[in-house]
Design a protein that fits this description.
heterodimer; A: about 375 residues; Aspartate Aminotransferase, domain 2; Aspartate Aminotransferase, domain 1; 7-stranded mixed β-sheet; 3-stranded antiparallel β-sheet; globular; B: about 350 residues; alpha/beta; Rossmann fold; SH3 type barrels; 3 domains; 6-stranded antiparallel beta barrel; 17 strands
Chain lengths: ~375, ~350
């Protein structure tokens, strides 16, 4: 019930990666034929990914994860703006992943950039009007996530990207949470930069990519070798790159089928939870959300403890108000939605996957109401 | 949830790790809990309580993973601050020397943590304390740990029947040496770790600096006198001195002088020569009898006045249900108001109270 955190690596993906650990272990930068074979594998992976994203090969930059992709996008574009003195202002939303918010804050604090954090409405949407009003003459980048990791809300990025472009401002989207379930055609989306991470779509951990439309990204934030056209130094991780491409091909091929199946199960889960648990509320939007995401707040519940209770009942889940250090603060997302603390402290995210079935949902339907009611009894 | 699940309070240290390993190897359904406690935001410690630093959490997590048991961190910073840190400041401010470990055991471990453990479906809470629990004639008894150097029953003397019934001390029947060797046998990476710290919430080990920073209003200078009433100098505030203290008093005399008592009413620090420190009597309040039965009669017991002191033979005379008078067989030094006086008959801990 925690597929938004990460997913199991597909067996076909494991099989595709295996040859590149010990047999085909060449460095794609080497001149010799062992290196050439590795380079071929990377290029084939790049082709597969470019087909799905509908972009050119050199518009894909391999990274180690979604967070690195986000960092590269913001820092790389910011460096270029600084060098060409054509901008000093970045706009992000208040429900971005920490990889975006933290990087924006870093650019503000240590590099003197100006940052606007756009509010969201009660469903988590960024409004076109807010974006339009926030754009300044020195704005050079807008970064709004495709779909939110906690509450699953899907942002109107096509519309938001159009607005950015009206003002000649680049548009980046963090599509890490969306990638397994939403269309990724960068031309249809109209985005200039987009971050992905393989482990969210049944690929391996430790590999991601940044799509950067040609001539947008000219500066790297990691210096060294000239890999990825000098935009990301470091030996390419051949097996993981192969794994990422294989995984994205698989999920893209079965996406509509998987989504309908997950949507039915997810809706059943939401309905039953809202019906059977008093003082429970859905967070995010009722329909405009990732098909596998169900997120709630429960009045008077400590989210951290809820996760522990569920774990003791063999249910893996997440809470925007929990982390493993025991800190019960609500997340930036829940705070941005202006949910009162007696609710936002008791958040729960259930996220299903391609292999989730009816009996998994029924088990949660059976356990969760009891756990919540026991926890509430215990408070009295 | 399964019946008979046991929650183990884990600290990442060797004792609680072995406690978890022993229970787990006996086939019990075990899970680990660790408290996140308040800590003074500090330079060295980086705002981390030394009993639950990130390193200890990592260590405890590793141990839980090796034992293949679930492990969770429970936030108790507010509760700890309210019940232990504020208590510590209040007591020092009022002129006595508090024992925060007892207060933590009372309110945090056997209060907050126990209730969380029970709500998670545990029927018992186990800790790595060196003490034992035995059932005798229908009553739960608290016994000293078998390792006399490590015995921690003093800090557990505030437990009652309902707590003991739900508590396990798996390491109590072992010596520290045995526990270290068991840790090795279980393959736990904790055998060489140091013991948990008293005053775990201080950024350094200097409680005087802490009081200066957190309760400066409690530090009112006043006279230093001997028991004849002669003024010998000025003290910097009573909370900064401990009964029996010699160094740093700031008066010079032909013979070394020690703190005999602190008189809050007229803000006076009384100092004396070593030979005049001894006392034969003390009164203890808020007395807890572990058996749950209050004693009407005078009883013979060994009385321990500090965590590290030896028990001294004495007569205990009840004054009322929660107050007793202790008369030692001979004079003893360093009877410190605010510390616990804990009563023993052989290795059985009868309970204890706070020295008035």
């Amino acid at each position: 019930m925690d597929h938004a955190a990460t997913t199991p690596v597909d067996t076909a993906v494991v099989a595709a990666m295996l040859p590149f650990f010990s047999n085909e272990y060449g460095n794609p930068s080497s001149i010799h034929h062992w290196g050439q074979r590795a380079d071929h594998a990377v290029t084939s992976a790049r082709e597969d990914l470019a087909n799905i994203l509908n972009c050119d090969l050199d518009e894909i930059i391999f990274t180690s994860c979604g967070s690195e992709s986000d960092n590269l996008a913001l820092r790389g574009i910011a460096l270029a703006a600084r060098e060409r003195a054509h901008g000093n202002h970045i706009i992000v939303s208040s429900i971005e992943h920490p990889a975006i918010l933290g990087t924006a804050q870093h650019l503000l604090k240590y590099h003197g950039f100006d940052v606007t954090i756009l509010p969201v409405d009660q469903h988590g949407f960024t409004s076109a009007e807010d974006l339009r009003n926030a754009i300044q003459s020195d704005t050079f980048l807008v970064s709004i996530m495709y779909a939110n990791n906690e509450i699953g809300v899907i942002q109107p990025i096509i519309e938001l990207a159009e607005i950015a472009h009206e003002y000649d401002v680049l548009f980046h989207t963090d599509a890490v949470q969306a990638a397994g379930q939403l269309p990724l055609n960068v031309h249809e989306l109209g985005v200039d930069l987009m971050s992905l991470s393989a482990h969210k779509f049944y690929g391996p951990k430790g590999v991601g990519l940044l799509y950067a439309r040609r001539d947008t990204l000219t500066h790297s934030h990691q210096t060294g070798g000239s890999q990825e056209n000098g935009l990301r130094a470091g030996t390419l991780n051949v097996p993981l790159i192969v794994g990422m491409a294989t995984a994205l091909k698989i999920v893209t091929a079965s996406r509509s089928q998987d989504n309908s199946k997950m949507r039915i199960l997810r809706n059943k889960l939401i309905k039953s939870i809202l019906d059977t648990i008093p003082e429970s509320h859905l967070t995010g939007h009722s329909t405009c959300r990732l098909p596998n995401n169900a997120s709630f707040v429960f009045k008077g519940i400590d989210g951290n403890e809820l996760i522990i209770h569920l774990d003791l009942s063999n249910i893996a889940a997440s809470s925007g108000s929990a982390c493993k250090t025991g800190n019960p603060e609500p997340s930036n997302v829940l705070r941005a939605l202006a949910i009162p603390p007696q609710l936002s402290n008791g958040s729960l995210r259930l996220s299903i996957g391609r292999h989730t079935n009816d009996s998994d949902i029924e088990y949660v339907q059976q356990v969760l109401p009891t756990v919540i009611s026991n926890m509430r009894d215990n408070l009295q | 949830m399964t019946q008979g699940r046991i929650a183990v309070a884990m600290s990442g240290g060797v004792d609680s790790s072995v406690a978890a390993a022993l229970l787990s190897s006996q086939g019990h359904d075990v899970f680990g809990l660790m408290l996140r406690l308040w800590s003074e935001p500090g330079q060295d410690s980086n705002g981390q309580n030394r009993c639950c630093s990130p390193e200890s959490v990592t260590r405890a997590r590793q141990v839980a993973a090796i034992l293949d048991i679930p492990f969770y961190v429970i936030d108790a910073r507010d509760e700890f601050h309210k019940n232990v840190v504020e208590f510590f400041i209040d007591k020092y401010s009022s002129g006595v020397t508090p024992n925060p470990c007892l207060e933590c055991n009372r309110n945090i471990r056997w209060g907050h943590l126990m209730s969380k453990a029970l709500s998670m479906g545990a029927t018992q809470l186990a800790t790595g304390h060196y003490a034992r629990i035995k059932k005798n004639k229908g009553k739960w008894q608290l016994l000293r740990g078998c390792d006399s150097n490590k015995d921690q029953s003093y800090a557990l003397s505030m437990l009652g029947q309902s707590e003991l019934e739900r508590t396990l001390f798996p390491v109590g029947q072992h010596t520290k040496t045995e526990i270290r060797s068991l840790a090795n046998d279980f393959g736990l990476p904790v055998a060489q770790r140091q013991d948990s710290q008293d005053l775990c919430f201080l950024a350094d080990k200097d409680y005087r600096r802490f009081m200066q920073e957190y309760a400066p209003q409690s530090l009112e200078p006043g006279p230093i006198m001997n028991s004849c009433g002669e003024t010998l100098g000025q003290h910097k505030g009573l909370p900064l001195y401990t009964i029996g203290q010699r160094k740093g008093i700031g008066v010079s005399a032909s013979e070394p002088l020690y703190v005999l008592s602190k008189n809050k009413a007229d803000n006076t620090l009384i100092v004396e020569k070593r030979s005049r420190l001894g006392k034969k009597h003390l009164k203890a309040t808020k007395v807890n009898w572990i058996s749950g039965d209050t004693t009407q009669n005078k009883i013979r017991a060994g009385v321990q006045i500090r965590y590290t002191a030896n028990a001294v033979s004495a007569w205990i005379t009840p004054i009322n249900n929660s107050k007793v008078e202790v008369e030692f067989d001979h004079q003893i030094n360093d009877i410190t108001p605010g510390q616990a006086a804990v009563f023993y008959q052989d290795s059985v801990c009868l309970g204890g109270g706070l020295i008035e």
